[in-house]
Amino acid sequence: MKMSPREQLLVAVAVALVVVFAAGNFVVAPLVGQLHLLDHKVVQKREELKTFAGLEQRYADLNSRVTAFEQRVTHHAAGFSLFVELEGIAKRIGIREKIGSFKPQEHTAGDYREQTVDVDLKGLTLEELGRFLGGIESSREAIYVKRAEISRQVGGTGPALLRAHLVVGTLTGKAA
């Protein structure tokens, strides 16, 4: 079947339109979709990068705070002894004679060496106990009360007296 030049032109235009439409749907549209997807991923990754940069800064800040804390709690004055420090506090507030016993101990607490002293105090008033605990708290050295058992002392007449068993500790450095 022979087509006239006009029909040939129409068929050629129709074929060209079909080819352009097919190329648009099967080649260009997927590429444009991929381009939009990649643009979205780039934006998402930039946000993640900002988050990681913030986390990195936070980590650096926390790490420097930990280092400063370790320096503060593990470095004591030359010749520091927890036993001597506690005895000095007791003498300063006038309860040295009420100390039943001091038992120093050393052991490992996590990553640190810990020095503790078991302190038995007998015949204390509540005010004296408060002053002793205040002296521990206000010490220039980083010491803390690890455990406290306080009971009313049985017997005797007069004002109520207390018996206190304290475990006072300090960190002395990194464990080996």
Can you walk through the features of this model?
The N and C termini lie far apart (99 Å). A hairpin with a 2-residue loop joins strand 1 (99-109) and strand 2 (112-124). The chain has a four-stranded antiparallel beta sheet. It has two domains: 1-74; 82-174, Alpha-Beta Plaits (2-Layer Sandwich), CATH 3.30.70.60. It has three helices and four strands; from the N terminus they run ααββαββ. The model has no long low-confidence stretch (mean pLDDT 87). Helix 2 (82-93) crosses helix 3 (126-137). By secondary structure, the chain is α+β, with helices and mostly antiparallel strands.
Summarize the structure.
The chain is built from 3 helices and 4 strands, in the order H-H-E-E-H-E-E. It is an alpha+beta fold. The termini are far apart.
**What percent strand?**
25-35%
Envelope shape: rod-shaped
The overall pLDDT, averaged over residues, is 87
Task: Catalogue the unreliable spans.
Answer: none
Enumerate the strands of the largest sheet in spatial order, edge to edge or round the barrel.
1-2-4-3
State the helix count: 3
CATH superfamily of the largest domain: Ribosomal protein S6/Translation elongation factor EF1B
Name the assembly state. single chain
CATH architecture of the largest domain: 2-Layer Sandwich
Q: What's the count of strands?
A: 4
CATH fold-level name of the largest domain: Alpha-Beta Plaits
SSE class: alpha+beta
Distance between the termini: 99 Å
Helicity level, as a percent range? 40-55%
Radius of gyration over C-alpha positions, nearest whole angstrom? 40 Å
Q: Biggest sheet, open or closed, and with what strands and sense?
A: 4 strands, antiparallel
Strand and helix order: HHEEHEE
- What is the number of independent domains? 2
